[in-house]
What we know:
Helix content: 25-40%
Distance between the termini: 28 Å
Mean pLDDT: 96
Amino acid sequence: MNNFNWETFTKKIAIKASISELYNAWTIPEEIEKWFLSNANFLKQNGEQVSGNKSIKTNDSYQWSWFLYDIVETGHIIEANGKDVLKFTFAGNCIVEITLEQHQEFVIVKLIQSNIPTDNESKRGIRLGCDSGWSFFLVNLKSVYEGGIDLRNKNKDLTGMLNN
C-alpha cells in the first residue's frame, strides 16, 4: 500500500448518449435526480434556487441528498462550461471534475476526485468510500441513459446493499 494514491482517483465509463444529454444529467436538478440524488437543490450566487429544469452555472452552490441517507452534502460549483466540463467541491474540500468526450458512438464520462485528505478517516471514508460510490453511480448513469432503468435501492428495509 506504500504506492497507493490516497489523494486522488479517476473513474471512466463509456455511455451511448449525447454529450449534451450527459452534461444535463450532471447540471440540471431534475436530471441529476434521475440517477444520482433523491434531492438536488442548486442555488445561484444571490441565493435564489435554480429551477428544476435549468442548468447550473459557475459559482452556484448545491445541497444534495440521497435515498436512505440522512446526510446533506453541500458545496459549490467551481466550473460549469455549459458543454463538457463540470468541476465542484465535494466531501469537504475535495474537488470533483467531470469531463465528457465523444469517442465513436460513445461519450466517455471521466470523473477525477482530488485533494483528498490523507488522515485515516478520510482514507477510509472519502478515498475508498467515494471511489466505491462513484463507481456505482456512474454505472447507474449509464443504465438510466442507455436503458431507462434506475438501479438505486430506495427501500428502507433493504439497507447495506451495493446499490445504495
